[in-house]
Structures are given as C-alpha cells and as structure tokens.
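assembly run, all chains below
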Amino acid sequence: MTKTFTQDDVVRYVYEETSPEENLLIEDAMMSEPELMTFFLEALELRALMNKIERQPRISTVQTILNYSKHHPANPPARLRQS
Amino acid sequence: MEKAQVNDSELISLYIRGNEKAFAKLVQRHKSKLYTTIYLIVKDQYVAEDLMQDTFIKAVDTIKSGKYNEEGKFLPWIIRIAHNLAIDYFRKDKRYPSVVFEDGSSVFNTLEFAEDSVESLQIRQETHEHLRELIQRLPEQQRQVLIMRHYEEMSFQEIADATGVSINTALGRMRYALINLRKQLSKRAPSYDKNIYPR
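ok done. output:
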C-alpha cells in the first residue's frame, strides 16, 4: 500500500527528522503534488528567515556573566589556575 | 569561517579545569541563540537580558560545583535552564508584556549585510522585525512549539513529551504556526526577504 504524505511529514522533513528512506518517498510525493511542494518551499524559506532574526544581548550583559564566573567563590586560588 | 573549532564538550572540560577563556568562548558561541530564545518567550528585551544572566549564573554554579553532567550536550542543557526560568517568570508575575518596540539598529549582524544598500538593509530589517512580532503574536500553543523546535532544537517527540501531547498534535501546532506566519508575511509587500539563501 502506498503511503500518503501530509504537510506534517513535510514539517518533519524540513526539520530533518525523517529517515533517509522516508526522505526519498517524501521527495517523490512533493514532485507529484504541487501543493505539498509549495508548502515545503514556504516552510524552508520561513526556517531560513527565522534563523536570521537572532538577536544579540548587550555587551554589558555578557561582561557581567564573564565577571561572575571569573570571581566565583568556587574558583581555585589564582596561582593554581590554568590559563 | 572558523575551522576545526574546539567543541563544546572540550570547552567545558577546559572550563572545569579553571580556564575562563573556554567559558568566554562558550558564551560567545551561544549567547545569540540563547538570548533570542528567551526574548521570543518573554517578549521584553530587558527581562530577556536579566534572564540570560540568571541562566548563565545557574550554569556557572552547576559547573563550578562539579554537578554538571558531561555526558549531555551543553546547548540543549543551557537552553532548558533558560526555558524554565522564562516560564517561572510568567508564573511568578502572571503577566504577559505586549510587543516591545525597539530601534533594531544593533540587532543584526552588520558585517553580513555590509555590501547591501541602505534601502535593502532597511527592508530586510523591517521584514525581520515584522517576523519577530508575528512570532510573538502567534497563539500560545503554536508559539511554544515553534520556539521549542526552531530555537531550542528539541525534537517533535521531545516537545510532545514536555508538553503532554501526542507527536501528531505537536506537529500540527508547528504546521499551523508556519502557515500562520506565511499568511501574515504575505500580507506585507515586499513579503519576503529575497536574499535569505546564499548566492
């Protein structure tokens, strides 16, 4: 029996949660079903776009974190510390 | 591009032995992903900054006290800490801030866009800003799955287990989230960033 692939399968495919065997079948399904292919392309584009909206914290926030670690009470005495 | 970089496990081992530069490298490597994840949950840049500090402080305390399990991966572990802190924040305060407006000028990696014209850079910034707002406006269940899968890199099965639903429900919520984002983005012209793929 031939398995029918859905948009949920395409979501798993876009997020690389499908097996190599499933990949071939899903790719075949997308080639023969334009709506599935359209959904795939849109999901792929959104995934790429979402990767682009990463934000950066302020430098001072990062520095506070590094200082906390540097002056942590559990640190060994400076002379024993590896650099 | 950085080649043959030291992996997270090696950096953690160095850090456990007292190498603060290894920790600085870990922070630099993951700060953006972590901060973005927190920001998309709490929707407030100042709260996100505080929670990011708290996240790393918890991580430092755990590692320095010898309680870090070196068998796990660092990024999923620390993202889980951040996620829990963000959820605690909502539980404590029982509030849900509205969309935060910002100038956006320091948000993007300017080196990456250095060759773009001012106009195309502005369009791209607006598109990215718009997408952030759209993610924040998604129905809660859809937003949760999208953040967990895309930014926290949890599998759909892990999301299903964490949220107490079936994997099909988790997949369905993700599908609706993507469809909603696509619909909302297409209402705006130019709807898409035409240059998101490598040339």
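DSSP finds eight helices and no strands in chain B.

Residues 94-116 of chain B have pLDDT under 50 and may be disordered.

not gonna interpret more than that til we talk
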